[in-house]
Amino acid sequence: MTLDERALSHRFLAAAAIAHEAGQIAGRRFRDRSSFTVGFKGPQDYLTEVDLEVERFIATRLHGAFPEDGFIGEEGEGRVGKPGAPTWVVDPIDGTMNFARGAPHFCVSIAAVLDREVEIGAVYDPIVEEMFLARRGAGATVNGAAMSVSKTDDLKSAIVEVGWNMRGGAEYGEAGGVRNREGEKAHQPVHEKNVDRVEKPEAPKPRKGDGLRPSERFQEWRLHRAIPIRHQPPSTSPT
Question: Which pLDDT score, from 0 to 100, does residue 159 have?
């Protein structure tokens, strides 16, 4: 099958509507902390039944509207679509660590991929009611307002965000650590007791009175104690 502009536009509108519906479910469950339990898929890899509930809801809604489309869900839902049909890629609660801990920083993320290109993206934050939407080649919006990257072209005036994955396994504390491209340790292993981590989902998080557009917001890491860094000279070879 081949998709025309009308078919993609239909999916775009559906993605926005379903992300909003799914976000309302997630937000309602988040506010009722007694309505779910928290488990783990692996080290630092949180899972709640709300993830599964929201993913099943999204999968069912998309399959009902577009039965020919494929589906990949983070929590295990999946189906193969017909040749030429898009595949939906879904993170039902993007920021499960925050959701599980009671931190109001999470969102529902839905994308449609066709011929290895992301055609549609919908990210909804139910706590602050921000909807981020994008179409390939047509820009992105937040609650209908156009978004753009910063015009800053000087690194000294820019904001740089740095993050790392805490899911190194049980042995991470003894033998892990972040390594540079030569395979050497770039700094000491990081433990949860050293860092208050706010997991960063896809949607930028608002701060009242910060004067920043959504595209300029960023998450902070609060370090309780210094983490020694061994600086490496910049590589001149391409990465």
Answer: 80
